[in-house]
Every structure is written in C-alpha cells, then in structure tokens.
Specification:
Blueprint: H1 5-19, E1 36-38, E2 46-48, H2 49-66, H3 69-86, E3 96-98, E4 114-116, H4 117-134, H5 137-154, E5 164-166, E6 171-173, H6 190-201, H7 205-217, E7 236-237, H8 238-254, H9 258-273, E8 284-286, E9 289-291, H10 296-311, H11 320-331, E10 344-345, E11 357-359, H12 360-377
Length: 388
Amino acid sequence: MEMNRELESISLAKEWILNSGIQNLNGTLKGGFNSWFDIDNKNYPFIYSEITGYGIITLIFLDSIFKDKILLSRAELAAKWLISNALHASGGIKSRYYYEKSEENSQYSFEKGFLYSFDSAIVMNGLVDLYTVTKNDLYLGTAQKIANFLINEMMTREGTFHPLYNQLSLRPESTPSRWSTQSGSFHSKIFIGLIKLAEITGDENYIAVVKKATNALLKFQKNDGRFITDVKDESTNLHPHCYSIEGLSYVGTKLKDENLMERLSKSVKWIFDNQSDEFSIPQVFSNRGVVKYERSDITAQAIRLGSFFVQNNYLDAEYMKNIDTAEARLLSFQNANNGQIGGFFYGFDENGNKLPHLNSWCTMFSIQAMDFYQKLKNNQLIKLDLII
C-alpha cells in the first residue's frame, strides 16, 4: 500500500530517531538524547534531559502507530539514563550534559547549573507515560518524586511556579533574562503529568494543585488570547505561547472545562491570524516589532493545536487553509539529502541565518504534527494523551 506524504514523513523521522545517533546507544551515556546534530561540525553539543523526556513520549507515541518492540525498549533506555544521571536528590532534573567542558554553559551544566521546573515536568510526563505501558514501579515512583519537587519546592503561594532551582544553594530562583527563566503560563505543561498521576494513584491533591495553578497561569493571557511570555516588555514568544495552550488544553479536555477551552481557542486563533503572507509563523511579537524568522518546532506546535481545535469545533473550519500551508512549510524543513535523512532542521536564528542543526525536539514535534494533521484530514480522532 502506498504511503501518503505525512506517513512517509513520520516513517523517515522514526528511522532518524532510531538510527541517526541522536540517541546514545553505547557506554555510560546510553539512552540519553542529544540536542541536535551539527551538520557542519559533525557533532552533538550536549545531551539534553528535557529532550530525553520528550524522547520517551515520542517513542511511545511512535509505538502506538508502528507497534515495533524496539521503540519501547529505547524509551526504557532513555528513562534509565535520566534516573541514573539526571535526577537530583531534590527531585528536580539536571539540564544538560556537555561533551566538551570548554563549551559548557554553567547555567545549564549537570554539575552546577539550575534545575528547571519545565525540564523536570517533561521528564515527569515521560516517566508517567512509560509506567502506563510497562507498569514498572520505578518509573511511577520517580515521577511522583519529581511531582513532589514541583509542588513543594517550586510552586508559589499564588499558584505559579518558580522556573529555576539552584542546586548549590538549594533554593528556587528566577531572572528576567529570558522567558524560560521567568514564571509563566508555559509551566502549564506540568499539569499533564499531575493529572495522569491523579488518575493512576487516585490522589485528588494533584487535581487541587492543577486547578489552583490554572487560575494563576491564566493571568498571563491577554484579551486577544495572547500569552505574555516576557514580563519585561509584555512580549510573546510563540514557542512558550504554544506550550501554554498545550498544557492548559490538556486540563480543559480532562476536566471537561468548556470555558477554558473557549479561552484557549482565542489563543490558537491568534497564532494563525498572525501567520505571515508567506505562510510562516513568526517567533516573537513585541513592541520592538515582529521576529519573523521561522522555527520548525513552532510550526509543528501550531499544526498540532490547529488540528485538535478544528476537529473539536473550537476553531472555525476556515482555518484549515492556515493549517494546510503551515504543514507544507513544515515538510520543507525535513532533511532529504544523503546522511541523516528524516531529521528536521531547526530553522533560522534571530539574524535570519539558517542553522545547520538537525534538531531532536523539532523532529519529535513534527512527527506528532504530521500525525495530527493526517488524522484531521481523515476524520480520525486526535487525542492529547501523548502530547509531546
């Protein structure tokens, strides 16, 4: 049977995930996912714990499509690396393992860098999903330890989350230097794992946390649907804007909160209403202007959200043309040349230069975007259960 272009794209990306070297398969680093492959330098700069968490979910998601035993075995390798190497005694997750210490950024390093609430949440989500399919209590127990860290150490009295935990001083911190080091609505991705833990354990305290924090994080949303991602200038980076919708959509769907879903539909509509004439989706909106240079992860996130919201009638069908054009743009980022075929390029930097990076998380997001888009076109049910 001839494959359609979305399934062919997913199949190529699957092979890249399994066979390109983006996941380490030897030695003490076995299981960890690298950030990207630099085509010019022929190297991987660091192993990324957050992306290894995404890798677990991606492999489980791919197994739901292809039913290939190697996919779950690779997911378990990733989990074992995280638990053995990245888990801090506090329950938080260390960020990046650098291969070359001379290139190490101390803010992210395993030895003295910050533990990020967001990274910890993604690893928690992956471990909960892996427990669901394997019933290995190690994964559930570790996920609960991370959840306790997020709730007891990182959640503020108001219901937001501290973004950083200093593993030297053992105290939470924040800084306005960039969106990921501030408290923000993107921390709603924490809710995915908490809701799943509530379903598994029957502990309603997780749901109480989600409800309180949802109200707090919605304060970052403007009337037009846009989520503020940098409090310094009230600008919006589309990447965490999409994260905000993803986590909160999971809440709205699981807790059957139609008012929340209606609010979020404005946020998705805002993305496509600001799609450029060339059909690309910009990176940043601020009072200094629009950063137009594309990133494939943002495009993939927009396609996932658009597909789900159109299918569930939260977004008008007229937005199909926006999703169609975004999907065509996304396909253009997939590498079709000899060597490393199937991976997706990151996109462009803020100066408009194309980066020679075949990117792990961009590829993972794109796999799911293609699947969601295909399901929308074929009238097949889109589920958020394994949202990456």
